[in-house]
Amino acid sequence: MKATPQKLVCFLVTLVAWSFLASSISAAEIRGRVTNGTTGRPVPGVFVSLLALRGQMVPVRETETDAEGRFRMVVAANPNERFLVQVPFQGVTYSQPAVFTSGETVTADVEVFEAGARPQNIELEAHTIFLEPHQDHLRVTEFYALRNGSTPPRTAAPDGGSFRFALPGTVGDLQVSAGKPGGVSLRQAPQATETENTYAIDYAFKPGETEIQISYALPTSGTTINLSLPLLLPTSRRHLAIPKQGVTLEAKSVSEIQQTQAPQVRVFSVGIASPAELPLRLEVDPEALRATSVTPATTPAAAASESQVQIVPHPVSRAQGYIVVLLLFILSLGLYYLYSLPPALSATDAASSQSRSKAARPASGGARDGRDTHD
């Protein structure tokens, strides 16, 4: 059967679609090694799971480490797709991010630690509070920088809440997240404690630094805001930040410091190191405040945690695979329809068919004449 122009065009379009699909999705090889940071030895026979960060964490692969603590997984991935390797060990889940570009093997080594660090091994190194007034509420964002300095290094995972914080009263839109600096910050579920307006989270503090971010909204009315912030944990480095325009601050035990890292905010040093209450008074100029929009990411403490925001792919990128599959399905239907059509006659075949038709007509006429003569 000869190929018609329609079939040739359909074949070429299908080939292009398959090439596009092959170029957009590649095989990503993710390998690594799980080691025990407390003993310095590899960890064999532990469960390893791979999650894709696609707006939410989607499990895609799972395996176990070999006798040397090594693992290997292969998964289909788009360029620049982000993954998270997770390893549970002694009741604590350890994570390591992995980013696949194209045509390469991604290494994601995971370090786990034995449990047993005590709460006194956890120290608050710095506490930064950002106040952002709005029309009907005050957005308060607090950044806690903590360090687990246990020796040998162990993870602290006490029961009944490993980190406590207090709120200045009834608040809305309470959000808590925790993670390693520069890593993936995971949302936490705060639980109310026996003390009013005091909450706790169950978070395993691994050796080294941990950042906790707490954000909430306080309802306000008018241009004067009076509040008292409870300070539960002692630290020698505590700062307060407000927008540079549209807000004035009145408070005791605070002094403004000169800084260039965040030019859109004013930063104050808080002289209260021990647990106490921090009374504040804010005067807000709504017109000046609307002229400058400031977010907590402009504060020095938030600048380091900016990379912790989970990346959500563009909707077109997320739907790319579905679009290609739908296109191939439509092309397959079209190809099937074209192949089901009867083949078109060439010029030679048409002339031959016409000659046979002409030769058949006289024979038929002679037969009719014979019948008439006989009759």
Write a concise keyword list for the protein shown above:
Immunoglobulin-like; alpha+beta; single chain; eight-stranded mixed beta sheet; 2 domains; disordered C terminus; 375 residues
Can I get a quick summary?
The chain is of the alpha+beta class and 375 residues long. Helices cover 23% and strands 41% of the residues. A hairpin with a 3-residue loop joins strand 2 and strand 3 (57-64).
CATH architecture identity of the largest domain? Sandwich
CATH topology group of the largest domain: Immunoglobulin-like
How many angstroms does the end-to-end distance come to?
49 Å
Strand content: 35-45%
Q: Which term fits the overall shape? A: extended
| Spatial extent as radius of gyration | 35 Å
The parts where pLDDT drops under 50 for at least 5 residues are 20-24, 298-318, 363-375
Could you name the CATH class of the largest domain?
Mainly Beta
Main sheet overview: 8 strands, mixed
Helix content: 10-25%
Q: What do the pLDDT scores average to?
A: 79
* Major beta sheet, strand line-up: 13-12-16-10-9-18-21-20
Number of helices: 6
Number of domains: 2
How many β-strand stretches? 22
Determine the structural class based on helices, strands and strand pairing: alpha+beta
| H/E element sequence | HEEEEEEEEEEEEEEEEEEEEEEHHHHH
